[in-house]
Amino acid sequence: MRYPKLLAIIFVSTLLMCSHLFAQYSPTLDWKMHDVGHVRQLVNNVGALWYTITSYPGQRNCEYPHNSGEEHIGEAGIWVGAITPNNDTLVSVSSGWNVPSWPIFEFFPTDQPWDTIWVVNQGQTVNIPYWPNYEGTSHQDFVCRYSDDNVTNIAGHTPMPLDVIQTSHIWNYVPVILYNFYVISTQMDLQDVYIAYWLDGNVGYCIDCRSNYAYTRDDLSLYYPDQHLGVAVDSAGGPDGTAFSPIGVKLYPPDNHPANSLDWSFNWFPGGNVPSTDAERYRDMAAGTIMPNQQSTTNGSQFIVSFGPFNLSVGDTLHFRVGELFGDGVQGVMTNAHILDSLLVGVEPVSDNLPYHYALFQNCPNPFNPTTTIKYSIAKAGRVKIRIYDILGREVETVVNKQMPVGEYEVRFDAAHLSSGLYFYKISSGEFTKTKKMLLLK
Fold first, then answer.
1. pTM for the full model?
2. 83 with 91: CB under 8 angstroms?
């Protein structure tokens, strides 16, 4: 639930923010609507389940049952928190609050024209640049990716940086949606990584859902620890009556990390006091505490469910899943949670066909003398060039210049013939380019 008095300020601030962020950057901010079965769920390629700064014109982000007029989501998205090698505490969010300038989102797609939302139906095979031969596994799959360093001038935001590939899956016979998240650290070895899913549950019947939030104020936050399931539920009565369905989010940790080996947290935020700094968010994500269920309707339902910790090395992928659940009351949500559990086997990637992404990683070691290793990955077959430049921008060496298939690679660079100083290395492949710094100390 948002504060109605701030709506005009938020709208103007968002417009100003967009013009500032995208002054020299032109991504395709895409949205699609899952419209198979009874759920209508908005998905975009900044990792948030609401309209954010896309062109979506509708009133509802998430409607169930279809044509019922019931909304369920104000905002939703992932939070990723970690400790860096410099002992900094960083959290990147695809959706969150940063009072008083909220909402905030820190993940964006690249400006490549194909970096939109890919729609793949069951049995179809599509060549996505970062996921060759992707095969649809549900009645409607969406695939997108976003990173926390494509926009670097977000106030208060320090990228880790991270790439995230997201898939979502919906079926026509059960009101559930499954999200797969593949989180990749591209420059730093991250310690004590925690994952959270944030939900601002706006549950109830509404007409002007994007301007009148009275229907959200009687929502409550509940948690079912055996299922790692957070639920936003509409209290009986109130200005919106009684909603047919709550909304639940169930978190599934990586397969090689049993749930009982991790620290789990459930935090809801009385009076809308949502954490708005990296330190505050990480504190709540890593708390390892389960708050009692919300008993009073102070400001609606806002909560996170989180788990961790993990270590995430450069180039490694952390894969986890989130189920979005609906049903006839809380019991219906629980029933459909069990159905989703049984569906998980059918939505795993085919064989070893996991996504690749374009990336240029930090050389290691750095500083170096005189050799170092440069690691990179290619999402689409083509010619790859990696060149070395001095501080004046003069090319001093080409270390890679050849046709290469999709995959991850590394090249050893020997700078024995060069003087100490700051150098730059740049990769180019198709329309992808990226440059990083390295320091030679002799």
1. 0.79
2. no
